[in-house]
Amino acid sequence: MGRWVVFTIIEPASSSESTMPHIHEKIDFTVAIFVVQAGKLLLIHHRKLDKWLPLGGHIELDEDPEAAALREAKEESGLEVELIGERPPTTFPGTRALITPRFLDIHRISETHEHIGMLYWARVQSGDVTVAVKEHYDIRWCTPMDLEKLVPPMGPSVKWYCLKAIEEIMDHE
User: Fold this and answer.
1) What is the phi-psi region of residue 39: left when phi exceeds 0, alpha when psi lies from -120 to 50, beta otherwise?
2) What is the C-alpha end-to-end distance of the chain, expressed in Å?
3) Which of 14, 39, 120, 136 is such that its CA lies 20 to 30 A from the CA of 93?
4) Residue 166 is assigned to a structural domain of this protein
5) What is the pTM of this model?
6) pLDDT (tens digit, 9 = 90+) per residue, 133-166?
């Protein structure tokens, strides 16, 4: 008896999804940028997820994590930022050292999809904060006390990273 192989082509629901870079149907690489200024952290209220989050998004197929973090920060907030972290002195022909993310995590997006997140600390270099209205309900600077009052409430892991970023950046200013 012969075997039948059935292939299903899944069309994206919208044009914005068609440009979403997926390295695999089960997992993607992302960046999160925790921007701190004057003891406050910049957060967005994400429309699709209905959550308060740092700036961030998918690493596109033609960019490295550092470039993705800088791009996402600019697209989502209007700010030029400086990533904070160590860059090893190992840039030579054929190799470029990148700023090390402060943390890495893996988080579930759906029953069948996860993201490997590269979490960066950052400072503002220039620009004025603007909300990306197609992606976010709001954007605001939050003190550690403000994190407790957000609606909807912030998840405990994101809150931990926020507090850690504020603490570590304030210790170095």
Assistant:
1) left
2) 72
3) 120
4) yes
5) 0.85
6) 899 999 999 999 999 999 999 999 999 999 999 9
